[in-house]
DNA sequence: AATTCAGTCAACCGCCCAGGT
DNA sequence: TACCTGGGCGGTTGACTGAAT
């Protein structure tokens, strides 16, 4: 099985994308949508394979990307989700608006993994390292995640600071903002797991992970394979949702990301997925004085800049150079068809 | 100033899965 | 039912960059 890597007979370009290629791809998708990815390169006049175009779009050109530094809340959420899902980067990223699976994966591998190890936690199992070793060398697939993970405790004991108190210690009752819903199937491996201070008595899903007034992270119940009783919570970071939003204007898309979703018969939660740049700005405002957020703001890259400016001035994006970063790769895009967003 | 090293991140590769024929 | 194709995902690689020596 398995297909050949893209390329085939044609000699296709590989490696880093040039600004010109980005422009071609962006203009094409803005005008026509991506449709069938394999036809995109031809239609867009690119000597790339469809896969490469898709990846470039999803990981870099997509207008809803947040970029910039991960916030403490995002980091906490990633750790929690990883303890439940393992290396399901796409599912984890789906709960982090504006983040891509690649970004989350890189962040995990380059930063969180190391941080957990330094704290004596096996990043694969979320157990103490010595315990993980006894358990049989720690199996790197995360399949043995079900016994004990104390990320909340870890975070509380290590980061101090603003975000820590938003996570309950394992012995503390959860704040009201934590809402759990029972799921019917496929969550058995979560049995007896300590999650944010609650020990479930069986199937468990963390349906809302609300930590700060300015930040709400969501666990897509479907992403947790928690059965049909759970509702799907839209996430603007998922590519499927992005596709569905392709027909919306930015304003409409922003509006569309504010939804009310019924989780089960007892619980109703209101999601408030602001667009990424707005969210980051909100977090920053809510966390004034927190250097972490200040740093995050400082590291805003082109997408944040571009969309901030465009939305706030009711302008279509891409009138501004999209490469607002230090690489100084100014490119201007054709604004036609942006009503499609 | 030059070199080495480590960290980050964009991109590719190979596999799996779903849908169509 | 078997095969084919496209989309998607996770793992890995390699270029780039900044810090350390």
From TrEMBL:
Compartment(s) where it occurs, according to its Swiss-Prot or TrEMBL record: Nucleus
GO molecular function, one term: DNA binding
Predominant localisation class: nucleus
Residue intervals of the HTH myb-type domain: 9-61, 62-116
Cellular component per GO, a single term: nucleus
Keyword Oxidoreductase annotated: no
Location of the Myb-like domain: 9-61, 62-112
Xref: InterPro entries: Myb_dom, Plant_SW-associated_TFs, SANT/Myb
Keywords: DNA-binding, Nucleus, Repeat, Transcription, Transcription regulation
Keyword hit for Transcription regulation: yes
Name of the molecule in the record: Uncharacterized protein
Phylogenetic placement of the source organism: Eukaryota, Viridiplantae, Streptophyta, Embryophyta, Tracheophyta
């Amino acid at each position: 099985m398995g297909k050949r890597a893209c390329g085939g007979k044609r000699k296709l370009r590989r490696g880093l994308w040039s600004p010109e290629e980005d422009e071609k791809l962006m203009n094409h998708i803005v005008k026509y949508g991506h449709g069938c990815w394999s036809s995109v390169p031809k239609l867009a006049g690119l000597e790339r394979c469809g896969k490469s175009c898709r990846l470039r779009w999803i990981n870099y050109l997509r207008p809803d990307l947040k970029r910039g530094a991960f916030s403490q809340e995002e980091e906490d959420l990633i750790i929690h989700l990883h303890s439940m899902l393992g290396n399901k980067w796409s599912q984890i990223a789906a709960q982090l608006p504006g983040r891509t699976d690649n970004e989350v994966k890189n962040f995990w591998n380059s930063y969180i993994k190391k941080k957990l190890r330094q704290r004596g936690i096996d990043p694969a199992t979320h157990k103490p390292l010595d315990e993980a070793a006894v358990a049989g060398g720690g199996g790197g697939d995360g399949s043995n995640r079900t016994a004990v993970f104390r990320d909340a405790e870890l975070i509380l004991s290590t980061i101090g600071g603003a975000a820590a108190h938003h996570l309950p210690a394992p012995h503390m009752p959860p704040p009201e903002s934590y809402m759990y819903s029972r799921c019917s199937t496929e969550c058995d491996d979560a049995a007896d797991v300590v999650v944010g201070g609650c020990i479930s008595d069986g199937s468990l899903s963390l349906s809302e992970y609300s930590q700060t007034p300015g930040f709400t992270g969501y666990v897509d119940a479907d992403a947790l394979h928690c059965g049909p009783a759970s509702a799907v919570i839209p996430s603007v970071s998922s590519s499927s949702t992005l596709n569905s939003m392709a027909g919306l204007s930015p304003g409409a898309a922003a509006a569309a990301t504010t939804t009310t979703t019924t989780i089960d018969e007892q619980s109703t939660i209101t999601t408030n997925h602001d667009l990424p740049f707005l969210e980051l700005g909100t977090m920053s405002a809510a966390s004034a004085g927190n250097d972490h957020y200040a740093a995050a703001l400082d590291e805003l890259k082109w997408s944040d800049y571009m969309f901030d400016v465009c939305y706030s001035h009711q302008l279509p994006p891409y009138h501004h150079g999209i490469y607002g970063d230090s690489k100084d790769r100014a490119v201007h895009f054709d604004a036609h068809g942006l009503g499609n967003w």
